[in-house]
Design goal:
This protein is of the alpha/beta class and 221 residues long. It has nine helices and eight strands. The structure holds guanosine-5'-triphosphate and magnesium ion.
Length: 221
């Protein structure tokens, strides 16, 4: 597919990212646009989970997706196939997006009319956690093959996320993954975290998540 819009994001020059993120959050709220920031390690299932979320919610909300990557447009192509508005953001080698970069992405997405905008952040558990994008909610995915100890190793990411989706639950029997221990490790970092086991392959748990998301969208209005 050759008609995917690809935006080369310019590196931010602003030191006051937290203030710029708060400003963006306020502006989006006034416009009635709910921005969700989706983060995880590479390959844990962000794009696959987005496809499930889109299938469940696209009849109810106007959705726009920003796919951030260092290079390539494979994720934006995959999302565009679902029929929702999708653009690819290239970060020029940077491993995260901050509020100004997110604003550049939203402008390129042309968000007027969009009710739910989702940013698939660059895949890693470190840098994206350090920069507030201005999103209304942060959601992360931890997949079963990564192991239940990740909240111990990447504390900041788990502490800033409102929801932790434990993905690839369909293959749990093949891994030494202790779901109960994982829950405890997550709650140790963030006692308010909503934890939902899902499978982006079978669709298990997706409804529980989309119900949470719909409720948050309505709460913002
Ligand atoms: N068995 C199983 N495989 C899954 C599941 N979710 C994703 N996968 C597979 O995991 C691989 C990576 O999935 P993606 O959705 O591309 O992961 P991603 O987080 O978007 O990857 P990056 O954008 O590269 O960081 C693909 O081969 C998917 O088919 C799941 O719930 N169960
Ligand atoms: Mg992806």
């Amino acid at each position: 597919m050759g008609d995917i819009k690809v935006i080369e994001i310019k590196k931010s020059v602003y030191a006051d990212n937290d203030e710029r993120a708060d400003l963006l959050r306020r502006e989006l709220k006034e416009k009635g646009i709910f921005l969700m920031n989706l983060m995880s390690s590479p390959g844990s299932g962000k794009t696959s989970t987005l496809k499930q979320i889109i299938a469940a919610m696209k009849d109810k909300y106007q959705i726009g997706i920003m796919e951030a990557d260092i290079d390539s447009d494979v994720d934006a192509v995959a999302i565009a196939e679902t029929g929702v508005k999708a653009i690819q953001l290239h970060t020029g080698g940077m491993c995260h997006l901050d509020a100004d970069m997110t604003r550049q992405g939203l402008e390129a997405l042309e968000v007027d009319g969009i009710e739910l905008a989702i940013l698939e952040n660059v895949g890693n558990l470190v840098c994206p956690a350090e920069f507030d994008t201005g999103a209304a909610k942060n959601v992360m995915i931890l997949s079963v093959p990564e192991g239940h100890d990740k909240p111990l190793k990447y504390p900041l990411m788990f502490s800033i996320c409102d929801v932790v989706l434990i993905n690839k639950i369909d293959v749990i029997e093949h891994f030494d993954f202790d779901l109960q221990q994982c829950r405890q490790n997550i709650l140790m970092r963030n006692k308010d975290a909503v934890i939902i086991p899902i499978s982006a392959k079978t669709g298990e748990g997706i409804e529980e998540f989309t119900e949470w998301l719909s409720q948050e969208i309505e709460n913002m209005r």
